[in-house]
């Protein structure tokens, strides 16, 4: 397929010369990303400064290469740090950790004495890892959408449904600020390069639980997220906290858990962008993608078949307001 | 009809037909003699190990023996064949009373072969295991892994399901 570079450059930014100029009516995508990243970093540093005295906890590791007991730091050490003490293999392949039987991000600090287990994609039952991977796929679509478009297209991410691997694609529903756009294969390919390049980086996915007021400040430029935050906060354990994730400089709301690092990803394709109609949010775009982990190599022919299927409209429920009962199965899962 | 692929021609197994001390070759009867020894020990131990050529050749004779024995111990022909192939006469009882009932409802063949790994530096002859199915020994390959829940297998399985349901409806895929 021959596509002139001019037609692509009309839509997408070139990463070498991204614009940081502000528009008259508000901030551009890049500026918002920068702002959220700064707020996230500041909050993380603040929370870290709260730990003034290092307390020790005992961590019982169960599983290969051998069961062992580690002495770690409360609120500071993560399962990844435990893996550093045990074996390099655990650092490179682990997707998630199980802390007292609960799924736990690899870069989330441990809070108390616990039993620790590491999960990866070739486990006997990798359902938890698969879900985390699929959720990360949605998260990375969000990352892509916020940086590929030029500044005149103001992207507002809405939400993504609970991960269901059986549907064949992961989804992010968003408002792209473009009307009447049917992306060509070349354009999709162009977009896919951004997340596909992440496999060569080792970006950690950091988790941070923040107060709802800070979350609303971070997402004040996004009309969908700012309307969802009160409901997300009300549903949380404390009643006023929101869980955020950061990868590189991209920050998004998600319940988690997500995978440990972008180095676990192998192929990544944004397969289709469909027009959808939501009762509460109006017309949106449903961006669908497909990805496979490095630990499970796949032949390109098989991958092509999966891509074709991933381009069909995903049957996940449409985005809607949080207070609705129908939304019990949805949103920033 | 045998339930697995066999060679067009029998192997000559020249070592089995080779020379004796008196200078004369044993010829085809010597080869058959060797086969009876292998079949006999297979029926006794239910799992044996040896060079691939001999195991593969003996496999066909064992299958044929079990096939003929299925006619029952009242059948003269079956009894004659069993008498020839099993030099240990206690095995004739095992053949008709244990093995024949065991393979009565099998839709596959009764034997299984495994190729063993080559030991360094290795020669041109492979070593194999020949076993009767349903034997009391622990499995040769322990705990086969179930990969059906791995991410790619879940994706491919659902893609297959989609494809089949679409082709059943007659909608173009």
Automatic annotation (TrEMBL), chain A:
User: Could you say which residues form the signal peptide?
Assistant: none
Query: Domain TGS, which positions?
Result: 77-118
One term of GO molecular function: nucleotide binding
Entries under InterPro entries matching the protein: Beta-grasp_dom_sf, Pro-tRNA_synthetase, TGS, TGS-like, Thr/Ala-tRNA-synth_IIc_edit
Q: Which SUPFAM superfamilies match?
A: TGS-like, ThrRS/AlaRS common domain
> Which terms in the GO cellular component ontology are assigned?
mitochondrion
What name is this protein filed under? TGS domain-containing protein
UniProtKB/TrEMBL annotation, chain B:
The record's Gene Ontology biological-process terms are: translation
Q: Could you tell me the keywords of this UniProt record?
A: Ribonucleoprotein, Ribosomal protein
* InterPro entries recorded: Ribosomal_bL17, Ribosomal_bL17_sf
One GO term in the molecular function aspect is: structural constituent of ribosome
* Superkingdom, natural source: Eukaryota
Q: Name one GO cellular component term.
A: mitochondrial large ribosomal subunit
Which residue ranges does the record annotate as region Disordered? 1-31
UniProt cross-references to Gene3D superfamilies, sorted A to Z: Ribosomal protein L17
Q: Which residues cross the membrane?
A: none
Listed Basic residues bias regions? 1-14
Q: Family assignment?
A: Belongs to the bacterial ribosomal protein bL17 family.
Q: What is this protein called?
A: Large ribosomal subunit protein bL17m
The species this protein belongs to is Capitella teleta
């Amino acid at each position: 397929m021959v596509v002139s570079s001019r037609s692509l450059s009309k839509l997408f930014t070139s990463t070498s010369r991204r614009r940081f100029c502000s528009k008259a009516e508000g901030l551009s995508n890049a500026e918002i990303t920068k702002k959220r990243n700064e707020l996230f970093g500041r909050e993380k540093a603040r929370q870290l400064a709260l730990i003034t005295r290092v307390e020790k906890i005992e961590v019982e590791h169960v599983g290969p290469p051998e069961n062992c007991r580690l002495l770690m730091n409360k609120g500071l050490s993560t399962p990844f740090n435990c893996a550093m003490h045990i074996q390099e293999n655990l650092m490179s392949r682990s997707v998630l950790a199980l802390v007292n039987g609960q799924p736990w991000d690899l870069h989330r600090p441990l809070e108390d004495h616990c039993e620790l287990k590491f999960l990866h994609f070739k486990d006997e039952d990798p359902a938890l890892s698969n879900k985390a991977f699929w959720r990360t796929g949605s998260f990375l679509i969000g990352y892509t959408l916020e940086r590929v478009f030029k500044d005149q297209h103001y992207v507002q991410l809405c939400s993504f449904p609970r991960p269901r691997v059986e549907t064949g694609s992961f989804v992010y529903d968003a408002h792209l600020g473009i009307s009447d756009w049917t992306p060509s294969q070349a354009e999709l390919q162009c977009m896919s390069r951004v997340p596909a390049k992440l496999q060569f980086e080792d970006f950690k996915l950091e988790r941070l639980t923040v107060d709802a007021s800070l979350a609303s400040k971070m997402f004040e430029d996004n009309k969908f997220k700012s309307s969802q935050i009160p409901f997300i906060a009300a549903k949380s354990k404390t009643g006023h906290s929101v869980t955020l994730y950061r990868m590189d400089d991209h920050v998004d709301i998600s319940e988690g858990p997500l995978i440990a690092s972008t180095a676990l990803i192998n192929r990544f394709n944004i397969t289709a962008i469909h027009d959808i109609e939501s009762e509460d949010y109006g017309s949106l775009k449903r961006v669908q993608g497909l990805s496979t982990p490095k630990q499970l190599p796949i032949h390109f022919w098989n991958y092509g078949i999966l891509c074709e299927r991933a381009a069909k409209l995903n049957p996940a429920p449409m985005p809607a307001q949080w207070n609705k009962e129908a939304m019990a199965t949805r949103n920033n899962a | 009809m045998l339930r697995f692929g066999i060679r067009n021609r029998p192997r000559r197994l020249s070592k089995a037909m080779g020379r004796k001390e008196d200078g004369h070759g044993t010829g085809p009867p010597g080869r058959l003699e060797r086969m009876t020894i292998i079949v006999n020990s297979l029926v006794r131990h239910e799992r044996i190990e040896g060079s691939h050529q001999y195991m593969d050749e003996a496999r066909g004779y064992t299958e044929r023996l079990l096939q003929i024995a299925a006619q029952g111990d009242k059948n003269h022909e079956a009894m004659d064949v069993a008498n020839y192939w099993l030099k240990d006469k206690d095995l004739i009882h095992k053949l008709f009373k244990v093995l024949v009932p065991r393979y009565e409802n099998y839709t596959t063949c009764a034997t299984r072969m495994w190729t063993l790994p080559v030991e360094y530096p290795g020669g041109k002859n492979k070593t194999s295991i020949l076993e009767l199915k349903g034997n009391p020994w622990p499995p040769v390959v322990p705990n086969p892994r179930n990969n059906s829940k791995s991410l790619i297998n879940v994706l491919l399985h659902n893609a297959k399901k989609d494809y089949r349901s679409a082709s059943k409806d007659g909608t173009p895929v």
